[in-house]
Specification:
The protein has a single domain, classed as TIM Barrel, CATH 3.20.20. It is 40% helix and 18% strand. The strands form two sheets. An eight-stranded parallel β-barrel has the order 1-2-5-6-7-8-9-10, surrounded by six helices. The protein has a two-stranded antiparallel sheet with strand order 3-4. Helix 5 packs parallel to helix 6 and helix 10 packs parallel to helix 11. The relative contact order is 0.13.
Length: 318
């Protein structure tokens, strides 16, 4: 197995990586395989698999009272990672999130992943569950992602939560973290968000993958600010092509990002989603080409389970 940081350091040319969403619980695993297969022609060295925490729903019973039901809507990271590794010659980077988990649950997941010889983790805080205005950690859980990074880093030193262990075997995880070129929506400003990012790097993060953005100038400004702040690990830009009118309405709200006026001017000329789809490909291709020209070590594409438009981008840009 190969660490992502080693892949980045050893590659002599830029490469692509992808992020996929696991199928819904009860779905056929072949849906995930079919989403991956068209992308394998571009030889991605690793694929990220998102993780979705359990949700809580209150259902009314016949007597009028309500019961609390915990819903697991998608399979967990360990099972999905194992399935992909069995099927494809690619490293898998499962997401591990603080939300909905105690430190001990996270440690058990890390032990399982370590037994599977999975050496790459994307350490995230996770979003609030529906109905929560702000993120609320579990009792004895982590409030911030840098705390999860530190826990993983400690395991790499052979330091487990059970301090009575003797001769504990160190894990060997490479730790990726997320960043936001336009700042996280909870941060008061970009400089403080970068300060928080540095906490993650200082805690042991090996590399950074950014949230999607549509204005490369914001990414370059972000990277310059990171370097000035003493963050020197690799920073991989993340991109997603717009494909529908719904994206225009949903993405800025969901991810706290801006759509450049030039892009909006082109979209306004579109008569339907097919035309928006083509504009999205053109814009993402131009972004990709510009990032590569500016020395990006790799580009990470958010596929959301759909590969055709990203395949078109890659054929043009790589």
């Amino acid at each position: 197995m190969t660490k992502v940081i080693d892949i980045i350091n050893k590659k002599t040319a830029p490469f692509v990586s992808f992020e996929l969403v696991p199928p819904l619980k009860g779905s056929d695993i072949n849906k995930l395989y079919h989403a991956i297969e068209p992308l394998m022609e571009f030889e991605p060295p690793f694929i990220n698999i998102t993780f979705h925490r359990d949700e809580v729903e209150f259902r009314q019973k016949p007597d009028g009272s309500f019961e609390k039901v915990i819903l697991t809507k998608r399979p967990g990271s360990v099972a999905i990672a194992a399935a992909i590794m069995k099927r494809f010659p690619v490293e898998v980077v499962p997401h591990l999130i603080c939300g909905g988990a105690t430190k001990y649950k996270l440690e058990n997941d890390l032990i399982d992943l370590n037994f599977l010889d999975i050496q790459n983790i994307m350490a995230l805080r996770g979003d609030p569950i529906p109905g929560q205005k702000y993120f609320v950690p579990e009792p004895d859980g982590h409030r911030y992602s840098w705390e999860l990074v530190r826990q993983i880093h400690n395991m790499n030193q052979g330091i487990y939560l059970d301090t009575s262990l003797t001769n504990a075997v160190p894990s060997n995880f490479c730790i990726g973290v997320a960043a936001y070129p336009e700042k996280h929506y909870e941060a008061p400003n970009l400089d403080m968000d970068i300060e928080n990012l540095k906490h993650k790097v200082d805690a042991g993060a090996d590399y950074i993958v950014t949230q999607m953005f549509f204005d490369n100038r914001k990414f370059y400004t972000f990277v310059d600010k990171c370097r000035a702040a003493g963050i020197h690990v690799p920073i991989i830009p993340g991109l997603k092509p717009i494909s529908t009118q719904k994206h225009i309405e949903m993405l800025p709200r969901a991810f706290s990002i801006d759509l450049p006026q030039e892009l909006m001017d082109e979209i306004r000329k579109c008569k339907n989603n097919d035309e928006i789809y083509r504009v999205g490909i053109e814009w993402c291709t131009a972004q990709s080409q510009d990032l590569l020209a500016h020395g990006a070590p790799a580009i990470h594409y958010y596929t959301m389970g759909k590969a055709d438009n990203i395949r078109e981008v890659l054929k043009r840009a790589f």
